[in-house]
C-alpha cells in the first residue's frame, strides 16, 4: 500500500476564476491565492464551522482595496461574494465564507501617526492591538479595549466586531475609542466616518453616489424609528455590536455613522484606516485574587464586589485553573494561587489602578477590609499581585483560558457557540444558574471564565463534534440560551459578534429588523459583502441569513476519517484555531516561519489544518495511513524512487505537494509544543508527514546527508584537515549549494578532544567502572551525554563543561557517543529514528542506575530524550538527561567567590529550551548571581537556524529574515548592555554565519570565573 495522489474535491468555481483573472488584469498588486492549501487554512477560524473559500486576496495597498471594490461593483460580477478577514480568531464564523477572503493583515499593518499631545493614533486595519500598544508604551499611552487575543487581533477585526473584554465597564468597547473611520464601499467609493454636526450631516447626505445614499438612509431610519430604537436596544455595557442604531446620535447632538459601522463584521464595506483615541497608562495597579470553594459563590460575590468600584472583575472557574496548572504559564503565577485543603473552584481577579499610588493603596486597603468583614459569601482566601509586571503575569494566565479549554483530555472539547451572552450584571448569577441547568440536562461538562462586572461569562459546553448526536445539541442549546438571555434582559451575542448566529437577529429586533435590512441594502444591494451575517438587504427578498445547523461544521469533515487515525495524530487534530501561533511579537519564539513569511499555511494552525484535510482525502482515496506507516522501508529505498510530479505539479497535480511545502518550511523548533495552549506538536506532525510523503515521492539527496550526519561525523573526524580543506573549496561549495541544497556547512573544531580528556582524567562510563565506585565517589561524579554537533564542531564548549565540572570537584565520565536521532526525526526517517532511539536508550540505561546524574550540553539534542524518545514504542524507560544548568544548580556551591569587577551579560536561550523547559532558563541567572555576575534574559524570538534548517539552500531567505527580526537587533545593542551569550549550538552557528561574531556559552563565562578561584 502507498499514499494516494490526492486531488482537491472543490475546484474554484469558473465565475470566481474569471473574476480573479480580471482583478489581476486591473492592476491589483497584492497576492491572489487560489491554491487548495490557502483555501483550506482559511476555511476555519476559532469557531465550530468550516467554509471553504474560493480564494484569498491580500491587498498590498489601499489602492488595491479600491481596485477590488470597483470590480465587485460592476454588474458582471454582482454574483461574486467576499468577506474581510483580520486575525482570523473569531468564535462565530464571522470571517468564514464560500466566496473570496480579503485579508488586510499581511500588508496593511502600518501605524501611520501617533499624536501624543492630543492622544490619538492613525492606523491601518491590519495593525495588531499589542503592536500598537508596544509603540504607544514609550509615550505612556495605550489603546484601552482589552482582549485575550490581543497579540494577534487586528484593529480592523476589533472594529468589525466592536470588540471588548476585561475593563470594559471603565474603558468601554472599541466603538467608544473610534474617532474616525476610512472605509471603501462597493463600487470603490471612499467613505470617511466621523461625528457630524447638522450642517455637516446635510452635506454628507447631499453627496452623490453610494456615500450620500448610506448617510440619507441611516438618518431616515434614526428619525423615523427613534421610539422603536429607544425601546428595542438593551441598556447594557455590552450593548449591540454592529448596526447599532441606538448610538447614531451622540449626546452632544452630532450624528456618528461609526456606531453602525463598528461591529458590522464586514457586511457594509472595507475598513482600511482608523483614527483612534488612546489613554494614559495607569501608573499603579494592583490585582487581588480572591479564591472560592464554589464557582456560584464567586459569581454572586462579584456583583457585590463591584460596589467597591474596581477597574474590573474577571472570573475563572476550576476547570480553567486546573488546565493552567499543566501549562507553562503556571510557572509565573503559581505563587498567587496557593493550594488549600479545600479545593479552589472559582476565582475573582479584582483590579484597582490609577495614577496615585496612595489612592490605589487606599482602594486596596478598603477592599481588603470589606473581604474581612463581609460574611455573605465564604471565601478561601486572597493574594495580592502588585505592580504592572505582576498584574500582567496573572492576566496572562486568564488570557490563555480560551486556548486552555481546548486542551482538556478526551474527544469532547469545550466549544464556542453560546459563550458570550450578556445580561445585566445583577442578573448574571441567576442567569448562569439556569444556563448550567440547561447544560446539566444534556449531561455536559463545561468551562467558564469571563467579565462578571460587565455581565458576560464565557461558557463553553464540551462536545465531541465528530459525533453527530453531540453535534446536534448545538441547536437546542443555542435556542435555549438565546431565549434565556432575552428573558434576563440581555442578548445572545454580547461580545464576539453574531456571525453564523445571525439567524437570531430577526427575532431579537422584531419590527426593527426591516430597518437593518434597509441599511444593508444601501451599502450592499446585491448581498455581496459577507452575506448571511447580521442582515439581508431589503433589495434581495430571496436572500437568507445563515443558520447554525445549515453551515458545515468542522466535525462533519473530521468524522470522515477513522477514529484511530484521528487519535493517533494527537494534538494537531484538536487545534481549535485560537490563533496563539499568530502572535505578532517578533521577540516571542512562536512561530518563526509564520512571522517571516506572513503565510498562514506556514503556521502551526495552518499546518494542522492542512494535515487534517490531507488525512481526510487519503481516507477517501482508500488509504489506511496507519497501515502504510507500519510497512517496512529501508533507509535508502526512497532515494531511488522516480521523482515524477513534485518537479512538475501541472503534470500530476497532488494536494500532497502543497502540504509538503508547508511542512518543509517548519523549523522544528518545537515552540508550538511549549506555547500553544493545546500543545499542537507540529514537528512531530511534520516528521510523520514527510515519512508518508516520501513513500510515494523520492527524497532529495540533502535529506540523506542531514539524516546521516550523526553517523558520518565520527568517521570524517579522523581526517579533519581533509574535510575542512574540501569545504573551503569554491567548487565543493558550489556543488553542495546547487546540487545538494546545503550552504555554510560547519567545520571540525581544531581542538584535540583527546587532550581534553587526558587533562581532566575523563573516563568512559561503563557499568564495570561505575560499579566499582563508592557512594561518596558517585556523589562527586557526573556522566556527560555527548552530541555529535558540540563534540566535533564546538569542542571548546564541551571542553568547558568538562573543565568546569572537574574544577568543582567532580569526576567526569563520558557516556558512549551514539547517534541521538534528532536529524532522523526532523527529516521523517521514522523507522531509523526509532531504531536509533532504542539503541541509545539501551546504552544509557546501562549507566543510568548508579545515582550519577546524566548531563547533556546542547538543549535541542538533550530535550529529545524527554520528548521524542518517550513516544517511541517499546523503548522502555528513558533515562533522565539533565541540562547543564539544571545540574549546576546543585553542583555549583552557594559560596563561590564573588567577582570583583561588575560585568553584565545577556542570555539568548535556544527556542526549544525556553518554550519546552521554561523552568530551566532562570537557573542561569541564579548561577551567575552566585558568582556575583549579572545576567539578564531579554525576550527574544528565533535565531533562524534551528538545527540544519538554516543550512538548507531553500530556507536561506527565510532564515535571514527570522534572524533579522529579533536576534540581529539584540546583537546590535550597545556593548554596555552586556555581552550576549547563547545556549544553543545552532544559535551560535547562525550568529557566526550572519554576523561573523562568536558568542560564548554561559558555561564558558562561569568557567572563566570559577577557574580564577578553584584550581
Question: What's the structural blueprint in terms of helices and strands?
Answer:
Blueprint: H1 14-25, E1 31-33, H2 36-41, E2 55-58, H3 62-72, E3 82-85, E4 100-103, E5 111-115, E6 120-124, H4 129-136, E7 141-142, H5 155-161, H6 168-171, E8 178-184, E9 190-193, H7 198-205, H8 209-224, H9 226-232, H10 258-261, E10 270-277, E11 279-280, E12 284-292, H11 295-305, E13 312-317, H12 318-325, E14 346-354, H13 357-373, E15 379-386, H14 388-399, H15 401-404, E16 413-414, H16 428-441, E17 446-451, E18 456-463, H17 468-471, H18 474-487, H19 505-509, H20 513-523, H21 554-558, H22 563-568, H23 592-597, H24 604-620, H25 625-630, H26 655-664, H27 671-675, H28 682-693, H29 701-707, H30 709-716, H31 720-727, H32 730-740, H33 753-759, E19 763-764, H34 767-771, H35 775-779, E20 781-785, H36 788-792, H37 795-807, E21 811-814, H38 822-826, H39 830-845, E22 854-856, H40 859-862, E23 881-882, H41 884-891, E24 904-908, H42 911-916, H43 922-930, E25 934-936, H44 956-965, H45 967-971, E26 979-982, H46 985-995, H47 1002-1013
Parallel strand pairs: 2-4, 3-4, 19-21, 20-21, 20-22, 22-23, 24-25, 24-26
Antiparallel strand pairs: 1-2, 5-6, 6-10, 7-11, 8-9, 8-10, 12-14, 12-15, 13-14, 13-17, 16-18, 17-18
Structure characterization notes:
This protein has about 1000 residues and is α/β, with parallel strands linked by helices. The protein has 47 helices and 26 strands. The strands form 6 sheets. It has a 7-stranded antiparallel sheet with strand order 15-12-14-13-17-18-16. Strands 5-6-10-8-9 form a 5-stranded antiparallel sheet. Among the domains are: about 285-365 and about 380-385 and about 410-485, Vanillyl-alcohol Oxidase, Chain A, domain 3; about 560-700, no CATH class; about 710-890, no CATH class; about 890-1015, Rossmann fold, CATH 3.40.50. Helices cover about 40% and strands about 10% of the residues.
